[in-house]
Design a protein that fits this description.
- The complex is a heterodimer of chains A (480) and B (236).
- Chain A is an alpha+beta fold.
- Chain A is 41% helix and 19% strand.
- Chain A is built from 16 helices and 16 strands.
- Chain A has helices at 47-50, 59-63, 71-85, 93-125, 136-142, 144-165, 185-193, 195-215, 217-220, 299-305, 312-323, 336-355, 406-409, 411-426, 434-445, 451-454, and strands spanning 8-14, 22-28, 34-41, 174-175, 178-179, 229-234, 246-250, 256-261, 270-273, 282-285, 295-296, 374-381, 384-392, 398-404, 463-469, 474-479.
- Mean pLDDT of chain A is 88; it is low at 1-5 and 452-461.
- Chain B contains 5 helices and 10 strands; from the N terminus they run ββαβββααββαβββα.
- In chain B, strand 3 and strand 4 form a beta hairpin.
- Chain B has 2 domains: 5-76, Ubiquitin-like (UB roll); 85-207, Alpha-Beta Plaits.
- Chain B is of the alpha+beta class and 236 residues long.
- In chain B, the strands form 3 sheets. In chain B, strands 2-1-5-3-4 form a 5-stranded mixed β-sheet, covered by helices on one side.
- Helix content of chain B is 21%, strand content 16%.
- The chains are: A alpha+beta (480), B alpha+beta (236).
Chain lengths: 480, 236
């Protein structure tokens, strides 16, 4: 490391315990104060290009290969678009409920994975704990019951996905106009047997996240936090709906920017900006512009935008959550974890209700309609709002695809979080300390980013941090 | 004159009719000889060579070689299995076969054959050829990325449908299935109900809007290897 330069750039690479490969660059000024911090997403895949020419019915199965963590989200978002391409506006009750069950299973397993496998080491051991123990193995050694819960909850969600999509990862359940199978009584009974256990574990997970946040509120409140807009789907009555709804965006204090927007017209409301230092685009709300029109998505945004949750225990938890900020939007980055566990419980309540619904055993699975040429499918994925937009020619071949994934929406917010953390923790230093590295990762991890999805990439999932001086000379580099 | 002859396949003595091929006789006896181009209702033409056996010591395509009294056939030998693997490997790398999202997956004879022969990944480098998709027909699509040039569509269209919609053109690595209309499949006499639209062993010629209708777990080769039906019939 050299420190002769007047301004400096710090690079953190790779970022660990996130889904994908990211790099952080920190630029210092002449006084060693943070001038700018950037999260670079350096993976590239090109899904939007190589699905061109493929038949539209293939897309829900093909495009889910973007991700191995929440492929169901891509599968369903694409299927929702292809329903419309196939001319189907309304699925049969059985088809929609099977898809919802698949989606809640997905939400349950993904949130459990993130909380127990990726985040719990930070919460249980503290941000400054030795990375050698601050990991999932450390959790398994010191808190074996929790580690087992995490594994079993994830398994439960994945088994639901398997029962509805045919495979735990990359199944084929949703087809244009419906689904290819229902849920048999024997399949249902397997899940009913463990439903109470899962509910109890979901309640326990929520309690850990809530208690941790409340207990450490003074420390967490400023940690990587900033005011922002929030965006999600909401149901027509304002309820949280993770599978379907209309778009709602609010500002940092809760004023509505737009509401009940049919997502077929999302391009009238949302645009994407390209920056030369990242493969990930930067979406923004058109009416506000790129400078201030960025917004957050995901569990925190969904808790902020919805009027209520339609399952009793999650709704009670939402009220407690909102009370912390006096019913105004919660802009704390670290509150994502609490919000995520409320959704975990909500998903389990939904699963429980669906398992008792006899529609799941009915045989009316697919509807047909009059072909259309263009459609948008949107779903609330575990990490946030997911847009799939396709155009199909008269030969049934895809001619255009645009995917805006959750992590892309959260691009600017993650950059803000990194900038805030580095400003608070690096000031005056010219090297990357373990504490800084940890805190940058903790801030990014709160968003549960899927960097592979966001650039549509494959590879390792690590973080690199680089420190640069004002002339662009790298003076320190640290990687996991 | 006897109406049956005696022969052996892999040391097992079987009886056969003199007008049968080795493949037909083996099937009737419950002995599965791997094959890709052959299909019971179509005239065999020995194009894929996967069914190659040693017949009295000489390599022969079992689907076109007539049986003879006292014939000694070897099929399930390490040497022949290795040759079959090589053929399957070459078919995989010469096309663009992405099983993970192919709608034929689970029902695909090429994929099932690879599983049966224990092929985890091809030994040869992928060629990644540039191939065309012809989706101009309202009900049927040709994805030439997946074509293995078995000729079933050519035979079915000519001999069953009486239309000769398909034919091979080009030679060697340029060989491909063409259709009898310049503007593509949509301008031919093919209908979605034609036999030629339903004989493809892979996902090359597919009926539109039928993809993934069978759930995973209920597809033809989800639980039993290809050829199991023939072997099971032989045990009854």
């Amino acid at each position: 490391m050299t420190t002769t330069a007047k301004t400096k750039r710090i690079i953190i690479e790779p970022v660990t315990r996130v889904e994908g490969h990211g790099k952080v660059s920190i630029y210092l000024d002449e006084n060693n104060q943070v001038q700018q911090a950037r999260l670079h997403i350096v993976e590239f895949r090109g899904f939007e290009r190589f699905i061109q020419g493929r038949p539209y019915w293939e897309v829900p199965v093909l495009v889910q290969r973007l991700c191995g963590i929440c492929p169901v989200s891509h599968h369903l978002a694409a299927a929702k678009a292809m329903d419309l391409i196939a001319g189907v506006d309304q699925l049969t009750p059985t088809a929609e409920k099977i898809r919802r069950l698949m989606h809640y299973g997905q939400m349950f397993q993904s949130h459990a994975l993130h909380f127990f496998h990726l985040v719990s080491p930070d919460l249980l051991f503290g941000f400054d704990a030795d990375p050698a123990i601050r990991n999932v193995i450390g959790v398994a050694k010191k808190f074996p019951d929790l580690a087992v819960q995490g594994v079993m909850m994830r398994k439960y969600g994945q088994e639901i996905i398997k029962a509805t999509a045919g495979k735990k990862i990359h199944g084929t359940g949703a087809i244009p106009g419906g689904v290819n199978k229902n849920l048999s009584i024997p399949e249902r009974d397997v899940f009913l047997k463990d439903v109470e256990q899962m509910m109890n574990w979901a309640r326990g997970s929520l309690k850990i996240a809530k208690d941790y946040t409340v207990e450490h509120l003074a420390t967490l409140a400023p940690f990587g936090s900033f005011d922002s807009n929030h965006l999600s789907l909401v149901r027509a009555d304002g309820a949280m709906d993770l599978y379907h709804g209309n778009l709602r965006a609010i500002d940092a204090v809760g004023n509505r920017i737009f509401d009940q927007v049919n997502y077929q017209r999302y391009t009238d409301y949302i645009a994407e900006e390209v920056k030369p230092w990242s493969y990930m685009k930067f979406p923004f709300i058109r009416s506000i512009g790129p400078e201030n029109g960025w917004y957050r998505v995901g569990p925190l945004a969904r808790l902020n935008t919805c009027d209520f949750i339609d399952t009793p225990e999650a709704e009670a938890a939402r009220r407690e959550f909102m009370a912390v900020t006096h019913d105004k939007p919660n802009n704390l980055t670290m509150a994502y974890h609490w919000a995520r566990m409320i959704e975990l419980l909500h998903s389990m309540e939904k699963i429980q209700a669906l398992l008792h619904d006899p529609d799941l055993q009915k045989q009316d699975l697919v509807v047909k309609g009059q072909r259309r040429d263009e459609a948008v499918g949107v779903i609330e994925a575990p990490r946030g709002t997911l847009f799939h937009h396709y155009k199909v020619d008269r030969n049934d071949q895809v001619v255009m695809a645009n995917l805006i994934v959750s992590t892309t929406h959260n691009n600017t917010p993650m950059n803000r979080a990194v900038q805030k953390v580095t400003q608070d923790h690096i000031a005056g230093k010219t090297e990357i300390t373990e504490g800084l590295l940890n805190r940058v990762e903790v801030a990014i991890r709160a968003y549960d980013p899927c960097l592979s999805c966001a650039t549509h990439a494959m590879g390792r999932m690590p973080l690199d941090v680089e420190l640069f001086d004002h002339r662009g000379v790298m003076i320190d580099h640290r990687a996991r | 004159m006897s109406t049956t002859i005696k022969m052996t396949i892999d040391g097992k003595e079987i009886q056969a009719h003199p007008d049968q091929t080795i493949l037909q006789a083996a099937d009737a006896a419950g002995v599965y000889i791997p094959r890709l181009c052959n299909m019971k209702e179509l005239i065999p033409h020995g194009s894929c060579r996967v069914c190659t056996v040693r017949c009295n010591g000489r390599p022969q395509a079992a689907c076109i070689q007539p049986v003879a009294d006292g014939m000694v056939v070897e099929s399930n030998t390490p040497e022949l299995t290795e040759h079959r693997r090589a053929i399957i490997d070459m078919l995989f790398v010469e096309g663009n076969h992405y099983c993970m999202f192919c709608e034929k997956s689970g029902n695909c004879e090429l994929q099932a054959m690879a599983y049966r022969l224990g092929i985890a990944t091809p030994r040869y480098p992928y060629q990644f050829p540039h191939r065309q998709v012809d989706a101009t027909h309202p009900d049927v699509l040709i994805d030439r990325n997946r074509c293995i040039l078995c000729g079933r569509c050519v035979s079915a269209s000519r001999d069953v449908d009486g239309k000769s919609v398909f034919e091979f053109v080009g030679r060697n690595s340029h060989k491909r299935v063409a259709v009898n209309a310049e503007s593509g499949l949509g301008a031919t006499a093919l209908t979605g109900a034609d036999r030629a639209a339903g004989v493809c062993p892979v996902g090359s010629i597919i009926r539109k809007r039928t993809a993934y209708a069978q759930p995973i777990g209920q597809r033809k080769y989800d639980h039993q290897p290809i050829g199991s039906d023939i072997e099971a019939a032989g045990q009854k």
